[in-house]
Design the sequence.
């Protein structure tokens, strides 16, 4: 009997990892993590509520922001059970199939977020390049189509990941490098032939994050070309100012993602602490900072949030 065909070699459970060397103070680390989750869930939920209930925000730019906030909520809920289990309850064990399910949702929501960031870059390109045709190009049906395309692509591309892992035998150990299940991390525990997994994983990166990032760069090259053609300096600044929040969001999403991918590729040359730090930055930074950045930087969002809280305060009094 071949190893790859024997279910006996699939571990009943895997062990998650907190922060190496700081196991004794993990209960204290859970406090800032709880605060970060609270900010992420409350902040993104507030943006969803404000955009839904404020008619002047029913524009393409804010609808895409609504999609981004919904994706961040999904990503936060995907990691929350295991992160709290490890840091708050000191329970590191996760059932194998639960690990595969969590891995699927984390990678699917990450792919969706990348696609939405690309859609937002296209939104800024149309708004600056051809503002008179903005609402003609970005119609409600096209916006919905972009959102459905992001979801469909994420699900279709990521669905084979747990299937390909489930066919492998696991006999190298059961200890993962992170406090959640990440495909390259789980794959390293397999002792069967992982060539198909490696090729498919690389194809996923190139077909989703790779293509998205290239088109985002192209969008901003064309945006910059358009902005430089604006005669007045104040006009150039106003145009660029509308892109600042999106540029920052792209930066905090892709930089930890690229570094984490490189760490898993050349992991023998890095410390476990760097593994954990970049993994946590990848999943926590974007959901936490996105609502803060857009609330502080976008006047319309800030005004709508203040208005909602004032109305709530009046009702309570």
Sequence:
């Amino acid at each position: 009997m071949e190893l790859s065909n024997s279910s006996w070699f699939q571990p009943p459970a895997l062990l998650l990892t907190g922060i190496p060397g700081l196991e004794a103070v993990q209960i204290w680390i859970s406090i800032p993590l709880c605060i970060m989750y609270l900010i992420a869930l409350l902040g993104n939920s507030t943006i969803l509520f404000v955009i839904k209930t404020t008619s002047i925000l029913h524009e393409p730019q804010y609808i895409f922001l609504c999609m981004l906030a919904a994706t961040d909520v999904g990503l936060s809920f995907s990691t929350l059970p295991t992160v709290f289990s490890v840091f708050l309850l000191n329970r590191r064990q996760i059932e194998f199939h639960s690990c595969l399910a969590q891995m699927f949702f984390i990678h699917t929501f990450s792919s969706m977020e990348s696609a939405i960031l690309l859609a937002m870059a296209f939104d800024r390109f149309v708004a600056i390049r051809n503002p008179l045709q903005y609402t003609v190009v970005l119609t409600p049906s096209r916006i919905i189509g972009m959102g459905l395309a992001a979801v469909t692509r994420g699900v279709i591309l990521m669905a084979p990941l747990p299937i390909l892992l489930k066919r492998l035998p696991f006999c190298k150990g059961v200890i993962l490098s992170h406090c959640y299940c990440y495909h390259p991390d789980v794959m390293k525990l397999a002792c069967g032939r992982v060539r198909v997994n490696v090729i498919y994983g690389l194809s996923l990166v190139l077909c989703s994050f790779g293509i998205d990032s290239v088109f985002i760069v192209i969008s901003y090259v064309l945006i910059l070309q358009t902005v430089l053609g604006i005669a007045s300096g104040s006009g150039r600044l106003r145009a660029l100012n509308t892109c600042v929040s999106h540029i920052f969001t792209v930066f905090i999403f892709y930089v930890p993602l690229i570094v984490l991918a490189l760490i898993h590729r050349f992991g023998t040359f890095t410390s476990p602490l760097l593994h954990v730090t970049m993994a946590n930055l990848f999943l926590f930074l974007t959901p936490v900072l996105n609502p803060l950045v857009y609330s502080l930087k976008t006047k319309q969002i800030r005004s709508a949030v203040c208005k909602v809280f004032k109305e709530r305060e009046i009702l309570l009094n």
The two ends are 73 Å apart (CA to CA). The CA atoms of residues 42 and 291 lie 9 Å apart. Strands lie at 13-15, 93-95.
